[in-house]
Amino acid sequence: MQIIPALDVLGDDAVRLEQGDYNRVLFRQPLEEFMDRLVATGPAMIHVVDLQGARDGALRPEVIERCRRAAKGTPLQVSGGLRSIDTAREVLSAGAARVIVGTALWSDEAALDSFVDALGDQLVAAIDVKDGRLAVRGWMASSVDVNHALQRCQRAGVSRLHVTAIERDGTMRGPDLSLYEQTCASGIPVVAAGGVRNDDDVAALAGVGCEAAVMGVGYLTRLGLSLER
Question: How far, in Å, CA of 51 to CA of 90, rounded?
Answer without folding.
Answer: 18
